[in-house]
Design a protein that fits this description.
The longest helix has 13 residues. By secondary structure, the chain is α/β, with parallel strands linked by helices. The protein has a single domain, classed as Rossmann fold. The radius of gyration is 17 Å and the shape is globular.
Length: 247
């Protein structure tokens, strides 16, 4: 655990994290936490929550929101619980493997069609990719014997019909993301994220509605850094917890 909590979203969220070198929340979590704007009464789930940055970040921005955080690693789940208490957020932390069988998920308390919003930062790589030597970081970044389709299938199972899914992934994973969403979602909106204006996209922010037949849309890109390496005004505002500008 970090000796002092990190401040995210302009100080609205304080987060204890594992030591440096392990998987730690940063820009990806900040952008995902603000991708969808839930209502206070929505049943929101952070699937694969780690220390809770996304789900707790949503609750820090939407007073009254009571998120559910799913994390399979006991020690990391304990950090998520501590972070919820640190921020005065009423959150339910479920220790479960999202890729377990439907019966195992149900036994852990993950019931079908039970959430209005599911946000997820899935593992970015399958087992064939080279992974970090840090075991915690490798586990967070790599599927173990499964794939993105299985992950999205599990997210879909716990999301109610008409519910909204939000995810972030590598830009080169666009075909895999679209394949996993096909037949399950419509109203897919894709926003590319670029490190710099002249560089290719590095991330995709994707939102979709379960069971919808609405058309796909491509949103304006987000550029993170100016030529001098500082955040662009838009990226800096998002890191402070400001909402997305109108598309």
């Amino acid at each position: 655990m970090s000796p002092e909590p990190d401040g995210l979203l302009g100080g609205r969220l304080r987060l204890h994290q594992p030591p440096r070198g392990a998987h730690r929340a940063g820009t990806d979590a900040i952008l995902l936490a603000q991708l969808l704007v839930p209502a206070a009464g929505d049943r929101l789930c952070d699937a694969g929550a780690s220390t809770g940055a996304v789900g707790l970040g949503c609750a820090a921005l939407v007073p009254g929101l009571k998120p559910t955080l799913i994390e399979r690693d006991h020690d990391v789940a304990e950090l998520a619980r501590a972070n919820a208490g640190l921020n005065g957020i009423e959150a339910r932390v479920i220790e479960a493997d999202l890729l377990a069988s439907a019966a195992e998920r149900r036994a852990a308390g993950l019931l079908p069609d039970s959430f209005d919003v599911v946000l997820t930062n899935p593992p970015f790589f399958d087992g064939g990719h080279r992974t970090s030597p840090n075991p915690g970081r490798a586990t967070a970044h790599t599927f173990a014997g499964q794939d993105l389709d299985a992950w999205i299938r599990s997210c879909t199972a716990i999301l109610r019909p008409g519910g909204r899914l939000g995810l972030i992934h590598r830009a080169d994973a666009l075909p895999a993301c679209l394949n996993a969403l096909k037949g399950r979602y419509g109203g897919i909106a894709i926003r590319p994220v670029h490190a710099r204006a002249e560089a290719p996209a590095i991330r995709l922010l994707i939102s979709a509605t379960k069971g919808s037949r609405a058309a796909l849309s491509l949103r304006p890109p987000l550029v993170l850094h100016d030529p001098d390496g500082s955040f662009t005004p838009e990226a800096a505002a998002l890191h402070r917890g400001a909402p997305w500008p109108p598309a």
